[in-house]
Design goal:
The complex is a heterodimer. By secondary structure, chain A is α/β, with parallel strands linked by helices. Chain A has a single domain, classed as TIM Barrel (Alpha-Beta Barrel), CATH 3.20.20.140. Chain A has an eight-stranded parallel sheet with strand order 1-2-3-4-5-6-7-8, sandwiched between helices. In chain A, β6, α7 and β7 form a beta-alpha-beta unit. The radius of gyration of chain A is 17 Å and the shape is globular. Chain B is of the alpha/beta class. Chain B has one domain: TIM Barrel, CATH 3.20.20. Helix content of chain B is 42%, strand content 16%. Chain B contains ten helices and ten strands. In chain B, the strands form two sheets. Chain B has an eight-stranded parallel sheet with strand order 1-4-5-6-7-8-9-10, with helices on both faces. A two-stranded antiparallel sheet of chain B has the order 2-3. Classes of the chains: A alpha/beta, B alpha/beta. The interface between A and B is large, with 35 and 37 residues.
């Protein structure tokens, strides 16, 4: 199985030290645990006032490694000229964007969120949402935004039927609209299973049964999380076809316009 | 890693029936897939109130049901609420007589409060370990969900008062700011650290090794089962270090029992 990582980042998370910061370090970790490729966004850009500076750093860092590390842009629709950032990042080869309504303090259902989602949908890019960077219990006191709530995400995304999206670092999917509301079955999206339990609760199998195995992806969470927990969940899945889909082919399909 | 035999130093099973969303048989099947041979379990009252003596006994009786059925796989910590001084000490002795391996304290009292001292003295007398639900949540909202959760500082102070006692700080990967905890535990050689919890931060285990040494680390899951093994795979451990964390350290604690 060729693992395609749905969730990796580079740059610096200002609230804690972490060993992996460069593309070379990320690739070394990928090689050590058998990850073939990954979607990579900038951690720095989340906290920079001007996220495009972080995007530029990321693009420069990934330039020699584009075959394995696919860049994502961080957009803040409340900051001046975000549409220019989107266009510049798309021209530079970004395959999607990460939006952080919790860190950048806007609602997806209000004007800035709708503008961002509309622009990403029109650009034909993948929208990615990281529900949390770290476990709430251990966060630095300045790292205060709430985790993204699945119901709020669904409400924001619902008016944009052509938008493809990923929900990363989420949990509690079974009770979310993405699973309980059958209208979402027609949409193209991926839910990251990296926080679900395989051997004790069978949560990935259950979610696949409820939603369809084609809507599940898996992210390592590097560099804030170690990758082996996520990889082990897939290694231990009894259904090897499902493991292959979650570990790579679903994400490849989702990247196709 | 899956083939390396492991003792899970911090786990829960429901006893008879279903609790925590699984059965004891489910937990054993999951353990089998991860190479976990023995599971050191407890059933605590995880609410922000004192357990009644009846509830304490019911928790331990439920666990004992499982211990009797799977004696080769399951080991038990007696859950104690030290607020019930006489009743809790009686319960501790009753459980030790039934073969429990040690005590489990939750968040009813802080680890360095005097109400705990008689229990520490009993544990020292029997040379059994004490597992503490512990953590250092930064977020005020979460802190007030468990206002009397002990942190590494409470455990370090208790250990300095009772250096012969074996304390285990529960879930370094599920108890808030683990970097803070590691700094506190550097100077507390009587406090072991279990690796359990849902947090699988990159570098977590390596930082634990650097801070407290391999000899004070105990493999554990606290129901985060793939994550418990995955975080060991993430670490830069030698085979001897892996063996110590997965088995030898906890076995050494169990072998101390009088």
């Amino acid at each position: 199985m060729e693992f395609f990582d749905a969730h990796a980042s580079l740059g610096h998370w200002p609230f804690r030290s972490h060993p992996v910061r460069t593309a070379a370090q990320l690739l070394a970790r990928y090689d050590s645990c058998g990850i073939a490729r990954g979607l990579v966004g900038s951690l720095s850009a989340v906290c920079y006032r001007d996220p495009q500076a972080g995007n530029d750093e990321l693009l420069a860092e990934l330039a020699p490694h584009r075959e394995r590390l696919l860049p994502l842009a961080v957009l803040d629709p409340g900051y001046a000229g975000f549409e220019r950032d989107l266009a510049a990042c798309q021209a530079a080869g970004c395959v999607g964007v990460r939006l952080f309504p919790n860190y950048h303090r806007y609602e997806l259902t209000a004007a800035p969120g709708r503008r961002a989602l509309g622009a990403v949908a029109e650009a034909g890019l993948l929208a990615c949402f990281v529900c949390r960077h770290e476990d709430r219990r251990q966060r630095h006191w300045l790292d205060d935004p709430e985790d993204l709530e699945l119901a709020a995400l669904a409400a924001g995304l619902q008016p944009f039927p052509t938008l493809r999206f990923l929900v990363l670092e989420g949990i509690g999917y079974q009770a979310s609209p993405f699973v309980t509301d059958p209208r979402w079955r027609e949409r193209r999206f991926g839910l990251d299973v990296s926080r679900l339990e395989t051997v004790l609760y069978g949560s990935i199998d259950q979610l696949a049964a409820s939603l369809g195995g084609d809507k599940l992806v898996c992210g390592s969470g590097l560099p804030l999380k170690g990758p082996h927990s996520a990889l082990l969940k897939l290694d231990l899945l009894p259904d090897r076809a499902l493991a292959a889909a979650v570990g790579g082919t679903n994400l490849m399909a989702l990247l196709q316009p | 890693m899956l083939g390396i035999p492991k003792i899970d130093a911090h786990m829960h099973v429901p006893g008879e029936g279903r609790r925590y969303g699984f059965t004891t048989e489910d937990a054993l099947r999951a353990a089998d897939r991860l190479g976990i041979v023995k599971l050191c379990c407890s059933i605590p009252l995880a609410e922000n109130r004192n357990a009644t003596p009846e509830e304490m006994r019911a928790c331990n009786d439920a666990l004992d049901w499982a211990l009797q059925r799977w004696p080769d796989r399951l080991l038990g910590y007696a859950y104690l609420d030290p607020g019930w001084h006489r009743e809790a000490l009686d319960e501790a002795r009753r459980c030790l007589d039934r073969g429990f391996i040690g005590f489990k304290f939750y968040h009813q009292y802080l680890a360095d409060e005097p109400v705990l001292y008689p229990f520490y003295e009993l544990a020292i007398q029997h040379r059994v370990p004490m597992l503490w639900h512990a953590g250092r949540p930064w977020c005020n909202k979460l802190h007030w969900q468990q206002p009397r959760i002990s942190d590494a500082g409470n455990l370090a102070r208790a250990s300095r008062r009772y250096p012969e006692a074996v304390f285990i700080e529960g879930h370094i990967g599920g108890g808030g700011d683990w970097e803070w905890s590691l700094r506190e535990l550097r100077g507390a050689p009587g406090v072991y650290l279990d690796t359990s919890g849902s947090v699988v931060d990159d570098g977590l285990i390596d930082r634990c090794v650097a801070a407290v040494g391999v000899e004070r680390l105990l493999f554990a899951t606290d129901m985060t089962m793939e994550g418990g093994v995955g975080k060991l795979l993430d670490a830069q451990l030698t085979p001897a270090q892996t063996q110590a964390i997965c088995w030898d350290n906890m076995q050494g604690i169990l072998d101390r029992r009088r």
